[in-house]
Sequence to fold (389 residues):
Amino acid sequence: MLSTQLKFIVLAVGSAVLLSACSAVKFSAKADCEGDTTCVVQQGTQIYEDTVNIGGGNVDVLFINDNSASMSFEQARLSDRLSLFVAQFDQRFINYRMAVATSDVSSSSNPPRNINQNGALQDGKLIRFSGNQPFLTQSSGNASQREQMFRQVINRPETISCENFITSWINSGKSRDSSAYSSAYAENCPSTDERGIYTANLVAKNNPDSFIRPEADLHIIFLADEDVRSQLYWNNTPGFALEDFDKGDRLLTNIKSTYPQKTVGLHAIIVRDPTCLSSQNSQLGGVVSGSYGWEYHKAAVSTSGVSGNICASDYSQQLQSIFDNIQGQIVDKIALKCSGSSLVIENITISSSDPSITSQVVGSEIQFNKKLPIGSSVYYKYKCIASAQ
Fold:
């Protein structure tokens, strides 16, 4: 039998060994495990274990609204269906922000003035909702209040003012080929140089009102009856060449340069076919014209987003497709910290109302065969084994 003193010595030595071992484990952890509550290190091996509960996710939605003449019809169609669109975000418990900016970008020939609220409607600034809110959330009011706030922002008064001016001028019989018309147009109308993609780039670059959250997906929806720069770049019209910020196939790259890890969806409701183009060209007595939205279409294609038809009599289906696209990008994979021979999967358990959901490990991701319904959960445990030095 050990003496009391010897017992104390043995316990003390054992405690010292245990503390030493704990310290060694703690400080031998790799940098990508430190501060990660799902990770522990045992004998130099990182072990990750977590349960992901599928909620609605965080999504920032930006509408880029063409506010030039002839757009009031389309703005009204969009606002008529926004309540159903927003309701789905509420039903899926999505933590959303929704903002609106116009396609008006300032220049020497398009300076701030009364019609664009002295620049407040230009250059990617977010249009204020009632209460001076830069974007809407679930807490902005009840469903009816939020719908009304959206209507007031989507239906642009400067668009209607411009259309009324053009109609009045035509009905008066006065010539539109005059300096008087040009001067009056500048006073009563936003720019005819629509640059919606440029606006999207400015919002991503400047993040006005801290609208874009680091942890949220970003989806941008363009509503336009003309291509960027009224498609005048096709004819090499002086002053209308496309800059990098105008190009649809560059928008995703530009956004990713600021937010490398962000999930981005780009969507467009645009002129896509000859029948629609003819319809757009007949508005306001043919004074204004539409054009195919090629650059907006390129942007949508770059993220497999929705490229819809602005001439549709009802935007319900297009908004539903956009919502489905947003949902499909929220939860369809889980990133892992290692891959290849260093990755050892110990357990993946899916709990879901949809029993057909399966998973597979591809590279450094657990990928699912379909989006996970709200209320699902995924338990996973895996090891990252360090390679021999």
